[in-house]
Specification:
alpha/beta; 5-stranded parallel sheet; 15 helices; about 35% helix; about 15% strand
Length: about 475
């Protein structure tokens, strides 16, 4: 068993990030000891070889939580260049651009631990108070966006570098084996477009007087009469989603709303027999029912608790996972609310306005409350891409959207990670969304356990 010696400061923060990297991500055994006489992290292998990860952050702060200041976010980013790196140069959040390889030791100038801690805990979002109109931390405010590494899982890159350094020093352990997986998720904001004729009239009025969109008026009238004759409501895509997932040996996750206090909530009642029947079918077919807290529940524990109880009262299975509505999130308060309500995992960690790796990683990980200074039982399964980020916020073409999604997926696949993505049940059959359906289908069909590539389809035949 290797022994890891850490300095005698910021101990809880150091223990957390070492546990996540060595135990959760790499699956390695180690003994952790505190040493008053060191300033770096020294990793002593079973054979006596030493890996030194230089400390370029925590040793500057001797008081608890002293590091939680806006001024401590880097103003520039360098990139590590080394023969030990198989991928492109790695962004250095904290540290120096060098790795010194000696006979029985290696000194790494990149502060892997502080850099990973920065990305995983999102303390950047706690100290940076910039927010959008929905009180969300925007991608544009993040260090990763400003220095163009939001589309890279840099914590995974740090983990690979750490492993290569240990292998170079002849570590006598094997790392945890991982398998790439795709996790399709669906926030059920609107299970039906029309509950009755009033909804149809409201849609038409909005198209005429607000949007002045004659095509949408024609579409609404045409499709509503189809539903009267027995066709499915345009947002009733649940059977299609489950069929596609089952065809590809995947499990869909449906996150339902069950209350709310704003105009962006309460589009349906979770106790409605139609919704209860839908949830029964989801459970019977082996898919997952999750929680979608309302617009204001992300920082209101009492509201969160009430809605969760309401969902559990009506759900045929116990609910222990989900995602916040509008991706509203307050670090670390929202994580703590999920923890206090005994939820197993959250998947809110993506930016609404941009796809990518908000936490810098494509693995699920234990979260850390930077104010309470404690590791929580709650796991975060980072959301990599949301349909609305591509279409609503960026207004891109279908081909551009597929290239973005597939590019991110290939990076997740490289690290045998979990490609968690969000496609709303309502993002298929409308004038706006219908062309983008092919992206969802291709991602599932090309990355299932059943998929075998037989032919090459040219772009010109895919994106018409």
């Amino acid at each position: 068993m290797m022994t890891i010696y850490i300095p005698n400061d910021n101990i809880l923060e150091r223990k957390y990030i070492i546990n996540v990297l060595f135990d959760e991500f790499l699956g390695l055994n180690y003994s952790l000891k505190i040493n008053d006489g060191i300033i770096n992290t020294d990793i002593i292998l079973e054979n006596g070889n030493i890996l030194v990860i230089e400390d370029h952050f925590f040793n500057k702060f001797k008081t608890e939580k002293e590091y939680l200041e806006l001024s401590n976010i880097p103003s520039k980013i360098e990139f590590l260049n080394s023969d030990l790196i198989s991928q492109e140069d790695i962004p250095i959040v904290f540290g120096k651009n060098y790795i010194k390889v000696l006979e029985k030791s290696i000194i790494c100038g990149l502060d892997i631990f502080a850099s990973s801690f920065f990305m995983l805990t999102r303390w950047e979002e706690y100290v940076n108070k910039e927010r959008d109109k929905h009180n969300r931390f925007s991608s544009k405010s993040s260090l990763a966006f400003k220095f163009d590494f939001l589309n890279r899982p840099i914590v995974n890159e740090y983990v690979e570098l750490l492993w290569k350094l240990l292998v170079h020093l002849n570590i006598d352990q094997k790392r945890k084996e991982r398998k790439f997986q795709v996790t399709p998720t669906h926030d059920v904001d609107l299970p039906k477009l029309w509950w009755g004729v009033k909804d149809v009239i409201k849609s038409i009025a909005g198209d005429v007087f607000k949007r002045k969109d004659l095509k949408s008026v024609i579409w609404t009238v045409k499709n509503y009469f189809k539903t009267i004759k027995g066709a499915k409501d345009p947002f009733d895509t649940f059977e299609y989603l489950m069929n596609l997932s089952e065809k590809n040996n995947l499990t869909s996750h449906f996150f339902f709303m069950s209350g709310g206090t704003s105009s962006k909530d309460n589009y349906y009642k979770i106790s409605n027999p139609i919704i209860r029947s839908l949830m029964e079918e989801i459970k019977d077919r082996g898919h997952v029912i999750g929680f979608h807290p309302s617009y204001n529940a992300y920082d209101q524990d009492s509201q969160f608790k009430e809605e969760l109880a309401n969902l559990n009262e009506n759900s045929p299975s116990n609910v222990n996972c989900g995602r916040d509505h509008f991706l509203r999130f307050d670090v670390p308060a929202t994580w703590q609310i999920w923890e206090d309500n005994r939820m197993k995992w959250d998947s809110s960690m993506s930016y609404a306005d941009h796809e990518g790796f908000r936490c810098g990683v494509c693995y699920a990980f234990s979260v850390f409350n930077v104010l309470e200074r404690k590791q929580l039982k709650l796991k975060e399964k980072p959301l990599i891409v949301m349909d609305g980020s591509l279409v609503t916020y960026q207004n891109i073409t279908v081909e551009e959207g597929y290239n973005k999604v597939n590019g991110l997926l290939q990076k997740v696949k490289k690290y045998n990670g979990d490609f968690v993505f969000l496609w709303h049940n309502s993002s298929f059959n409308t004038i706006t969304w219908k062309p983008f359906q092919i992206i969802y289908e291709k991602i599932l069909n090309e990355n299932s356990n059943n998929y075998r590539s037989k032919t090459t389809v040219h772009k010109s035949s895919i994106f018409k």
